[in-house]
Amino acid sequence: MKPILELRKINFSYHTPAGETRALSDITLALAPGEFASVVGPSGCGKSTLLSLIAGLIKPESGEILLNGSPLTENSSNIGYMLQHDHLFEWRSVYRNVLLGLEIRGKLDAASKKKASQMLEQYGLGQFANVRPSQLSGGMRQRAALIRTLILDPELLLLDEPFSALDYQTRLTVSDDIGQIIRRSGKTALLVTHDLSEAVSLADRVFVLSRRPATVSRIVQVTFPPKSNTPLQRRNAPEFKNYFNEIWKELNRHE
Known about the structure:
Blueprint: E1 5-16, E2 19-31, E3 36-40, H1 47-54, E4 62-67, E5 70-71, E6 79-82, H2 94-98, H3 100-104, H4 110-122, H5 138-150, E7 156-160, H6 168-185, E8 188-192, H7 196-202, E9 205-209, E10 216-221, H8 231-235, H9 238-252
Parallel strand pairs: 3-8, 3-9, 6-7, 7-8
Antiparallel strand pairs: 1-2, 1-4, 4-5, 9-10
Helix pairs in contact: 5-6, 7-9
């Protein structure tokens, strides 16, 4: 199957008056259509930098990033980016927040408005469509942010620690909820997280980065039986501990 995303020998450094800091070194990876992958690594190793490169926000010093076999461009509309904070605007209702991306792209019409209403209903926010974001719980806000991203129909979703601002109990519930939504949508997703349990419970594969300058030190294929097909069910499966320990040992090797 042809990869939807390919990174070939990506190198990137930050330059300041104090000198050069190498962030990424010879990063090579690929994602298949519909795959959900996670990226973990030591703090400060360049995980978020990697997402910024894939999103086209910054450019690699060398190497190539391909989307559906074609070079990535800065203005690619095929990538959705979900950040740590939901960035919902308080002066807009939840419904109008969901429509924001469509407005910016000039794609707001009767059909897209209807789709927004349908998605809010489908994902349990229909009755909150006309309230302000401050009236939503943290988990509901993240769900609204995901709908705002999905309604643009991106081929690839980039998730930069989207649950990190939530308390632990809410984080478990919301990661399960959003993980299932993404699976049902059939989207390809790449999640950056420092939470190993989250990485294992959500992903098909886990890319483990070394300390800076980061390289892909290991790729862990994650497979669970069909009866453990949700993130919360995976956490209770016997295989979960083995994957967690394997990744933990690899990360400790780089500390």
